[in-house]
Amino acid sequence: KQEVTQIPAALSVPEGENLVLNCSFTDSAIYNLQWFRQDPGKGLTSLLLIQSSQREQTSGRLNASLDKSSGRSTLYIAASQPGDSATYLCAVRDFGNEKLTFGTGTRLTIIP
Amino acid sequence: EAGVAQSPRYKIIEKRQSVAFWCNPISGHATLYWYQQILGQGPKLLIQFQNNGVVDDSQLPKDRFSAERLKGVDSTLKIQPAKLEDSAVYLCASSLEADGSYEQYFGPGTRLTVT
Questions:
Q1: Residue of B nearest to A42 (CA)
Q2: Chain B partners of A46 at a C-beta cutoff of 8 Å?
Q3: Each residue of B66-102: pLDDT tens digit?
Q4: Distance, in angstroms, between B97 CA and closest chain A CA?
Q5: Within chain A, which residues score under 70 in pLDDT?
Q6: Chain B contact residues (CB < 8 Å to A)
């Protein structure tokens, strides 16, 4: 059974800093991995999707990497802004199964 | 392109009452998902539909939860009777198989409080 872990559960950094969020998963036979953002009281917004054959994906100030063999993914946020404050969730999709298994998320606070 | 629509956005009920949530997926998306997200946790899949057929309902508490997707478009999720532990956000998502990514798009969710 796939398990997804995100550490730390909460993170506060000053505005302008670069930061890394971590995600680990137990079963490396994944189809793809998705990073989401969730604002308080809102649904999930997809940020980046990395296929199992890819090593990284970039969108603006966001860069997500994937190391299947070690069961890890990171989300790098450059030049953080207060608007980046939110909960970030990673989710894994296994081969042969469209279901997403989610981590518990990292609550990020950017301090102005 | 319109996103996934859900209603109501908020609902407060007493335990043992019943409640229903509605979801309208993105047009053309064949797969629809219902998730339960308890405060401080990641979403947990309750049920997955492919068109109007059920693909996975292994984590749906079938003694009190039911869901249907008539005509392969809109879907409703019902809880009857509700328990205190059902307090959560219920998220609906849809995906388009044709692009091979199965990327899921989420609605804003319905926040349920059971008192």
A1: B108
A2: 103-106
A3: 999 988 899 999 999 999 999 999 999 999 876 677 7
A4: 10
A5: none
A6: 4, 6, 31, 40-45, 48, 55-56, 91, 93, 95, 101-109, 111
